[in-house]
Amino acid sequence: MIEAQKVELIYPDGTQAIKPFDLTIGKGELWYITGPSGSGKTSFLKMLVGEVIPTGGILSVLKTHISETNGKSIRRLRQDIGPVFQDFRVLEGHTVFENIRIGMRFLKISRTEMNQSAMEILGRVGLEHKANTLVDHLSWGERQRVGIARASVRKPKLIVADEPTGNLDHDNAVKILDLLESFVSSETTVIITTHATHLIEKPFGHQLIHMDLGNIKVEREV
Amino acid sequence: MGLKNTGYFLNEIRVILLKNKMSSLLSFFSIILIFGIVIVLVTSVWMLSNWVSKIQDEAEISIFYDQSLEPVEVDALFKALQEVSGIESVRSVTADEAHDRMSNLLDDQAHVLLLFDETPFEPFFEITFNFDHRETMLLALKDVHGISYIRDNREILDRLADLEKVAEGMSLGIGIAMLVAMFIITSHVIREGIVGNYEHIKTLKLLGAPDWFINTPYVIEGAILTGISALIAYGLSIPIMESIHRGVVETVVFLPLLEMNKLWIKWALYGLPTAFVLGLLSSYFSLKTPKTT
């Protein structure tokens, strides 16, 4: 699913955001990436979605070579990825239902199919009663649920969540991580970055990368 | 794929416009004003041009002839005038008819004509002509034997033609400047929407949305903005220009009423779609120039 060989990232100002690393991430896995702010977690995720291009090495995500690709194939790759953001990035002025459908509107699927998938996922994240509510009126926790529903409604092969609990209290953070973990399946891999290591002190079921000053270190492999 | 997204696009336009409420409103009024000025300007020039053309069509030339000509020679001159290219009709006006006309014109001052021992009026030929062939016709008249004097009101007609040209030139210049201003304002509104929606656009890009999907609301926004503005300006201009038209005709009695309805239909058929297309073009321009998308 993700293959990295000597991948590194140096920003134009000379900052080495990520030092050369090798990594293999397979199907149906759950990965946590921890590390302090500025350690390169977000840059790592940005490379996975083609938002930044590695300056060295070979990075393949869902069989797409990030370094050698064009705008069109990046777009196709992103349609197979579900991104979740720390600041939710819900579309204000639109309803919960619309926010979830947005990622499917430009895909070749019918309106019925689109609505059906949106309703299913709303049930799964526990927001079916708020389908017609404007996202502007939701709490932070609910907004993040909408973000997760939007990311997962297309049944993506990869879900990448960048500090999804960053703006949430402890209880909501735990619920959000549980929800994200529930999307791991034989077809879907979930990668979550967080600096809140206390939230992921579980003995099994996930793999862990620790990042510090651009160094990537696989701490635990299951 | 486009049809299922119509509701989303329209809602998105609403969100974009409401995000910069005051700016959108002011731009909207500016565009209405610009279209209003353009419509008033073009309609005024159209009215002027039509009136000038009608005055030119009704213009007559008086041809005076040598009074020593024998009646046979006068008849020959009459026939010769009918043959001149550009002349549409020739009519003989007697000295008595000329006297009566002047008497009518002078009205209560007509008694001054009684002071003359002999009639000061001479018989002449009155011709109507095709205004476009005026120059060649006047040239040809120089070669016609027996003509002593031609009163052609040339100066007045030339001035009217010049006035029409100046008005056309000015309205063309002002009209183009106004449309460029409209283009810039619409582009500015669209760009403002793009910048204000930067995070939204970025999110859509990360979800893999193609450019057409991201751009469509902005393109429709520009077309709607100019289309609705043009429609309102059109609606407001009709009563204004109709009352100006009636006022001018009532004040300058010899000006005929024009068929304004034809002009309004032309505006609706060509002006409004043009405004819509201009809106599309300015949106397209604003989407192509910044790197924010």
Automatic annotation (TrEMBL), chain A:
<dbReference type="InterPro" id="IPR027417">
    <property type="entry name" value="P-loop_NTPase"/>
</dbReference>
<dbReference type="GO" id="GO:0005524">
    <property type="term" value="F:ATP binding"/>
</dbReference>
<dbReference type="GO" id="GO:0051301">
    <property type="term" value="P:cell division"/>
</dbReference>
<feature type="domain" description="ABC transporter">
    <location>
        <begin position="2"/>
        <end position="222"/>
    </location>
</feature>
<protein>
    <submittedName>
        <fullName>Cell division transport system ATP-binding protein</fullName>
    </submittedName>
</protein>
<dbReference type="InterPro" id="IPR003439">
    <property type="entry name" value="ABC_transporter-like_ATP-bd"/>
</dbReference>
<keyword id="KW-0547">Nucleotide-binding</keyword>
<dbReference type="Pfam" id="PF00005">
    <property type="entry name" value="ABC_tran"/>
</dbReference>
<keyword id="KW-0067">ATP-binding</keyword>
<keyword id="KW-0132">Cell division</keyword>
<dbReference type="InterPro" id="IPR015854">
    <property type="entry name" value="ABC_transpr_LolD-like"/>
</dbReference>
<keyword id="KW-0131">Cell cycle</keyword>
<dbReference type="InterPro" id="IPR003593">
    <property type="entry name" value="AAA+_ATPase"/>
</dbReference>
UniProtKB/TrEMBL annotation, chain B:
<dbReference type="InterPro" id="IPR003838">
    <property type="entry name" value="ABC3_permease_C"/>
</dbReference>
<keyword id="KW-0132">Cell division</keyword>
<dbReference type="GO" id="GO:0051301">
    <property type="term" value="P:cell division"/>
</dbReference>
<keyword id="KW-0472">Membrane</keyword>
<dbReference type="Pfam" id="PF18075">
    <property type="entry name" value="FtsX_ECD"/>
</dbReference>
<protein>
    <recommendedName>
        <fullName>Cell division protein FtsX</fullName>
    </recommendedName>
</protein>
<feature type="domain" description="FtsX extracellular">
    <location>
        <begin position="60"/>
        <end position="132"/>
    </location>
</feature>
<dbReference type="InterPro" id="IPR040690">
    <property type="entry name" value="FtsX_ECD"/>
</dbReference>
<feature type="domain" description="ABC3 transporter permease C-terminal">
    <location>
        <begin position="175"/>
        <end position="288"/>
    </location>
</feature>
<feature type="transmembrane region" description="Helical">
    <location>
        <begin position="169"/>
        <end position="190"/>
    </location>
</feature>
<dbReference type="InterPro" id="IPR004513">
    <property type="entry name" value="FtsX"/>
</dbReference>
<feature type="transmembrane region" description="Helical">
    <location>
        <begin position="25"/>
        <end position="48"/>
    </location>
</feature>
<keyword id="KW-1003">Cell membrane</keyword>
<keyword id="KW-1133">Transmembrane helix</keyword>
<comment type="function">
    <text>Part of the ABC transporter FtsEX involved in asymmetric cellular division facilitating the initiation of sporulation.</text>
</comment>
<comment type="similarity">
    <text>Belongs to the ABC-4 integral membrane protein family. FtsX subfamily.</text>
</comment>
<feature type="transmembrane region" description="Helical">
    <location>
        <begin position="218"/>
        <end position="236"/>
    </location>
</feature>
<keyword id="KW-0131">Cell cycle</keyword>
<keyword id="KW-0812">Transmembrane</keyword>
<dbReference type="Pfam" id="PF02687">
    <property type="entry name" value="FtsX"/>
</dbReference>
<feature type="transmembrane region" description="Helical">
    <location>
        <begin position="267"/>
        <end position="287"/>
    </location>
</feature>
